[in-house]
Design a protein that fits this description.
Helices cover 38% and strands 26% of the residues. It is of the alpha/beta class.
Length: 250
């Protein structure tokens, strides 16, 4: 198994923007660098990121909000295409960054099980085979016959999580652990996530829980303004991140 990024950059055009001071404030909060013309600025969400991960690698992505963590996860998952550079990977991939993608609130829970599973790359036959396991884990019973627009937020998340974690991928792409729903479901979800992490061949994990990253991963990178500012052991990168976070402003 492998996951390789070679000098990957991702830029997003700002199609509509307000006055210069408001734009400057927005870009500062986003954390990315800005290029392009004054009439058509570009946000450089990732800049020349290179990674080479193989079986057994568990990569922690560390950085402030707006550093590019979510963009990098979505590139690794195949949700975003690089603007420049290349992505290559082998093995099945599951992303826990957008586990609601492909679901339609107007459809029933049962319909969304198949829809989301097919969106994840399964065949129609494979998607149908997942139904009993999703029924059991979600514990939604007869609600699965109803349109998802009738669900509470907690029920919506239960179903989406149950579907997204019903397969065992070779490559796991994830951000923060699930933290929604009642306490019993959170504990059940965390146990399932820990099992998926343990079974995955390659893990790419972004989180603000630095202790969790240190327990889970065996290498790390620190992202700053869309670029890799530092790479090494998780402890080393955590120290770098904490040093930058506590450094006095210039």
């Amino acid at each position: 198994m492998h996951l390789r990024l070679d000098r990957v950059s991702v830029t997003f055009p700002v199609l509509e923007h307000a006055d210069r001071s408001l734009r400057a404030s927005l870009f500062h909060k986003v954390g990315a660098t800005v290029t392009g013309s004054a009439r058509r600025p570009l946000i450089n969400a990732l800049r020349d990121v290179t990674l080479d991960l193989a079986t057994g690698d568990r990569l922690a992505i560390i950085g402030h909000n707006g550093a590019g963590k979510s963009t990098l996860l979505k590139v690794c998952a195949g949700i975003y295409e690089p603007t420049t550079g290349t992505l290559a990977r082998s093995g099945s991939v599951a992303s826990m960054t957008d586990f609601l993608m492909g679901m339609d609130p107007a459809l029933s829970g049962y319909q969304n099980i198949e829809r989301r599973a097919i969106f994840m790359g399964l065949s129609s036959h494979e998607a149908k085979a997942l139904v009993p396991a999703v029924e059991d884990f979600s514990e939604l019973g007869d609600f699965l016959n109803l349109p998802m627009r009738t669900y509470s937020t907690g029920m919506f998340i239960r179903l989406a999580f149950a579907i997204s974690t019903s397969i065992r991928p070779d490559i796991m792409i994830m951000d923060e652990m699930i933290n929604a729903g009642d306490m019993s479901f959170i504990e059940k979800a965390r146990a399932r996530m820990e099992g998926l992490i343990a079974d995955s061949k390659i893990l790419v994990f972004a989180s603000h829980d630095l202790g969790l990253l240190e327990r889970t991963c065996n290498q790390a990178i620190v992202l700053e303004k869309g670029a890799i500012a530092h790479r090494g052991s998780v402890a080393d990168c955590v120290a770098r991140y904490r040093g930058v976070a506590t450094a006095p402003a210039a």
